[in-house]
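Hey, can you fold this one?
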Amino acid sequence: MQPPLQPLRCYSPFSLYGVLEHGADFKAAARQLAKDGYGDQTGTAKPSSAPNSGGDRKWGKPEPLIGECPSIPYPMDALPAEIREAVVEVNDFTQSP
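Sure. Predicted structure:
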């Protein structure tokens, strides 16, 4: 059984592949992608020749591990009036968007 996706979390393509296809075993996902021909398969890459490995090269700006997902407002008019009033009341009380 695969782990569930977490709500309100953005996944990178690799993370999504790892979770859905390999049960969040990211080492297995990386091995499978390498087996399928993705990435450098020559084995000649050395730390000193890798991008951003130091020397005269500068590190780029770090990328966030988890991106922000913009919230999408729920169409409150789709709710029945009684439910809508309750949701609005709870929303106001909890000061949630």
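Residues 11-40 form one domain. Let me know if you want another pass with a different chain boundary.
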